[in-house]
Amino acid sequence: MKKKILMSLVFIMAMAVLIACKSKTKENSVNNSKISDETKIIDEKKQTEEKKVPEKTKEEEILENMSLDEKIGQIFIARCPDKNATALAKKYNLGGYILFGRDFKGKTKNSVIKNIQECQNASKLAMFIAVDEEGGTVNRVSTNKNFRKYPFASPQYLYKHGGMERIKKDTKEKSNLLKSIGINLNFAPVADISTNKNDFIYKRSFAKSPKETAEYVKSVVNVMNEARMGSVLKHFPGYGNNKDTHTNLVRDKRPMAKFEKEDFLPFKAGIEAKAPVVLVSHNIVESMDKSAPASISPAVHKILREKLGFDGVIITDDLAMQGVKKFVGKKNAAVLAIKSGADMLCSTDFLNDISAVKKAVANGEIKENDLDEHVLRVLRAKINLGIIK
């Protein structure tokens, strides 16, 4: 009897152990299944994330295939030389030419079109072809009767004799005329505020309040965008009542609060309207940077980027102007401008400036990664305007 009981107990214990082992095996199987499922989910998530890596933009693809010389050339809008313009555009991979009155004087429309097209055909990357056709006292094209019967009128005249609608109509006609001859960038509108007839910039300005000037700038940029004509807001951070920086070293002593309440408003309006380019002046604006003209001031460029939120192309005023030349002395203004944050350089002495920038990249004074960022902005603007197809 005792033997039977003992055998029964052994059997029961054996069964208990067997059941426990099976339960553990099942649990392990479930756990392994869970781990397998979780691993599968992680792998699928990783694959999805890899697929989400953004494709390279068109400008990034172009940049990848550019040499250092091509990158440096792209950041220059050069004053169009009297001779060998086509050959120089090709040799130095220039980002653009800016044309002045001499480039139209005594010429026919067809001859100008031919000259521009020859430069474009010779260039690996399509160029900005720019002018200052503000209307009024600053016209490069319409002063030649072969292009227009009368020069374009000033914004002040147009507004007085037809309000904002006449300004819009004039802007459309101007953009269409410029495009018809191969110009794709107009250094306008003037966003400076001036209501004093004695100011240097007065005749070129809208000559109204900050709010009215902002509305004017917004309207002009919108029409130019519709025509796919590049606009350039100038002269940041605002000329005010300062002297002409073509011939003078100018110090602006106005407080920052005045710029924020007044001068910045037209620029903000133009930026919000998607103006692709902002031109920075050579004024030394003491409330922003006492130590340098705006065009070579990191502080001024930072304000334009961060305070006004501009992510387009920043271009200098002409680096041959006395307002910057007198300040830099033997230093190179082009190098200083790039180091300060400018994307493009408006240069008359572009051969020497290109050489100086190349040397600065070679010795590490300008980082090639920073140069790449400037080139990307230039390429992006050209793509958005349909200049680079």
Describe the overall structure:
It catalyses: Hydrolysis of terminal non-reducing N-acetyl-D-hexosamine residues in N-acetyl-beta-D-hexosaminides. The protein is of the alpha/beta class and about 400 residues long. It has 14 helices and 10 strands. The strands form 2 sheets. It has an 8-stranded parallel beta sheet. β2, α5 and β3 form a beta-alpha-beta unit. α7 packs parallel to α8. The termini are far apart.
Q: Layout of SSEs?
A:
Layout: H1 2-51, H2 58-64, H3 68-74, E1 76-79, H4 85-91, E2 96-98, H5 109-122, E3 128-131, H6 155-160, H7 163-180, E4 185-186, H8 210-226, E5 230-236, E6 251-252, H9 256-272, E7 277-280, E8 284-285, H10 298-307, E9 313-316, H11 322-328, H12 333-340, E10 345-347, H13 350-362, H14 368-384
Parallel strand pairs: 1-2, 1-10, 2-3, 3-4, 4-5, 5-7, 6-8, 7-9
Keywords:
389 residues, alpha/beta, eight-stranded parallel beta sheet, two-stranded parallel ribbon, 51% helix, globular, beta-N-acetylhexosaminidase, glycosidase, signal, EC 3.2.1.52
Task: State the helix count.
Answer: 14
In terms of DSSP E residues, the strand content is 5-15%
Strand order of the largest sheet: 9-7-5-4-3-2-1-10
Determine the structural class based on helices, strands and strand pairing: alpha/beta
Number of E-type strands: 10
Measured between the Cα atoms of the first and last residue, the distance is: 102 Å
Write a short abstract of this structure.
It comes from Fenollaria massiliensis. By secondary structure, this protein is of the alpha/beta class. The chain contains 14 helices and 10 strands.
